[in-house]
UniProtKB/TrEMBL annotation:
Annotated protein name in UniProt: Acyltransferase 3
Species in which this protein is naturally found: Halorubrum aidingense JCM 13560
GO function term, MF aspect, one: O-acetyltransferase activity
Source lineage: Archaea, Methanobacteriati, Methanobacteriota, Stenosarchaea group, Halobacteria
Broad class of where this protein is predominantly found: membrane
GO biological process: enterobacterial common antigen biosynthetic process
Length: 374
C-alpha cells in the first residue's frame, strides 16, 4: 500500500456530505414515500461518523507504530482543541442571534434569553466532554479527543491489544441502553467518546496494529460484505423502528444514532477502502477530503441560518421550508454554504486548511495593526 490512501481521503468528503444529509433530512415530511427515502438515506449516512473514528484510529496506529503514542496524542489534542474552538466561535453568534429572534417573536426579552443561552453553553460537562453546549453536532470533536486519549493510554502502558476488548464492553453496554435495546436504563448520554468513539477508534487502531493490508483478491469479498452489512443495517433499523417499535413511516423517520449493524457496515466499508487505496485517485475527491473537517464544524450554523430563513420566507401562502424545492435544495445549500464559509475564513487567514484551526485575526487586521505599530 502506498503512502497515500486515496480511497480513504476521497471518502472523507463523501462522509461529511452524508453527515449533512443526516442533519437536513432532505425528504422527511414529503409524504410516506419521502419518509421512506429519507429513512434509507439517513440509515446509509450513519456510516459516516464511525468512518471518521475508524480512520483516526487507523492513522493513529500507523503514526505511533515506532513512535511515542503520548507525544503524538498531544499533537492531535492541540489540533482537535483548535478545531473545537473554531467550531464554537463560528456557531455561537448565529445561534445567539436565533435565540434573540425566537424570543422576540414569542414576546420575551431577547437579552434575557440570550443571557440564559450563554449560561447554558458554559456547562462544564456539556462544553468539555459531550461537546453539545453550543451545538449538538459538535459532539464528535471532544468524543474523538477522549477516544484517542484512551487508546493512547493503553498504548503507552504497553497493552494496546486490550483497548479494543475494553471498548467493545462499553459499546455493548451502550447498545443495551435506551438508544437501542432498552434493556439497561442508563442515566447518561452514551453518544460520546467512551461508549461510542472509543470502540471505533480502537477498532481502527487494531487494524493498523495488525498490519492489515488489502489486496485485489480481497476487495471483491469486502465490497460484498459492505453491501450485505448495509442491507442488514437498513433491515435492522426498519425492524426496530417500524415493526417492533411504534414508529410509522407515514408520519416520521426512525433515526437512532447507532445500532448493532452500524459496526459491521462501517468496519467492512473501511476495510474495503483500505483494500483499494487507489480508488478515486483520478477524481478531485481525495483533494477535497482536506475540506471535510471544516465543513463538519461549520455546517451547524449554516444549517441553523438556512432553516430559520426557510421557516420565515413565505411562498404561496406557506413557508419556504414546506416546499418540495426546498427539500431538494436544503442539503446541497447547507453543504456548499459551509464549504464557502470555511474557504472564506481560510483565505482571510483566520484559520488554515490542513493546519491550525485556532481562530486568529483576519490577515488584513494583523497587517494594519503591524503598520500602525511601525
Amino acid at each position: 500500500m502506498g503512502s497515500r490512501i486515496h480511497s480513504v481521503d476521497a471518502m472523507r468528503i463523501v462522509a461529511v456530505a452524508l453527515v449533512v444529509i443526516i442533519h437536513t433530512n432532505p425528504f422527511e415530511g414529503v409524504g410516506a414515500t419521502g419518509n421512506a427515502v429519507n429513512f434509507v438515506l439517513e440509515t446509509v449516512a450513519r456510516v459516516a461518523v464511525p468512518f471518521f473514528f475508524l480512520a483516526s484510529g487507523y492513522f493513529f496506529g500507523l503514526k505511533t507504530r515506532d513512535a511515542d503514542p503520548i507525544a503524538y496524542f498531544r499533537a492531535r489534542a492541540r489540533s482537535l482543541t483548535g478545531l473545537y474552538v473554531f467550531g464554537i466561535v463560528v456557531a455561537l453568534p448565529p445561534f445567539l442571534a436565533g435565540t434573540a429572534v425566537e424570543a422576540s417573536v414569542a414576546g420575551e426579552s431577547p437579552a434575557r434569553s440570550v443571557g440564559w443561552r450563554i449560561v447554558e453553553s458554559l456547562s462544564p460537562v456539556d462544553l468539555l466532554y459531550y461537546g453539545t453546549s453550543v451545538s449538538e453536532i459538535l459532539w464528535y470533536v471532544p468524543a474523538l479527543f477522549v477516544a484517542l486519549a484512551l487508546v493512547a493510554g493503553f498504548a503507552a502502558a504497553g497493552r494496546p491489544e486490550l483497548a479494543l476488548p475494553v471498548a467493545v464492553g462499553f459499546h455493548v453496554l451502550a447498545l443495551l441502553g435506551p438508544e437501542y435495546a432498552g434493556i439497561v436504563d442508563l442515566p447518561f448520554d452514551v453518544r460520546d467518546g467512551l461508549f461510542f468513539g472509543f470502540f471505533y477508534v480502537s477498532a481502527g487502531h487494531a487494524i493498523a496494529a495488525r498490519g492489515w493490508r488489502g489486496g485485489s483478491g480481497r476487495s471483491g469479498a469486502l465490497l460484498a460484505a459492505t453491501v450485505a452489512f448495509g442491507l442488514f443495517h437498513v433491515a435492522e433499523r426498519y425492524a426496530m423502528g417500524y415493526v417492533l417499535g411504534d414508529a410509522s413511516i407515514a408520519t416520521g423517520v426512525y433515526a437512532p444514532s447507532f445500532t448493532v449493524g452500524t459496526a459491521g457496515f462501517a468496519v467492512s466499508l473501511f476495510l474495503f477502502l483500505l483494500s483499494r487505496p487507489g480508488l478515486g485517485a483520478s477524481t478531485p475527491l481525495p483533494a477535497w477530503g482536506s475540506y471535510a473537517v471544516g465543513v463538519y464544524v461549520v455546517h451547524p450554523p449554516v444549517l441553523a441560518v438556512l432553516g430559520q430563513l426557510a421557516d420565515r420566507i413565505p411562498v404561496g401562502g406557506s413557508p419556504l421550508a414546506e416546499t418540495v424545492g426546498w427539500h431538494l435544495a436544503f442539503t446541497p445549500a447547507t453543504f456548499l454554504g459551509a464549504l464557502g464559509v470555511y474557504l472564506a475564513v481560510h483565505r482571510l487567514g483566520v484559520i488554515e486548511v490542513g493546519g491550525s484551526h485556532f481562530p486568529r485575526l483576519p490577515r488584513r487586521s494583523r497587517l494594519s495593526g503591524r503598520s500602525r505599530s511601525e
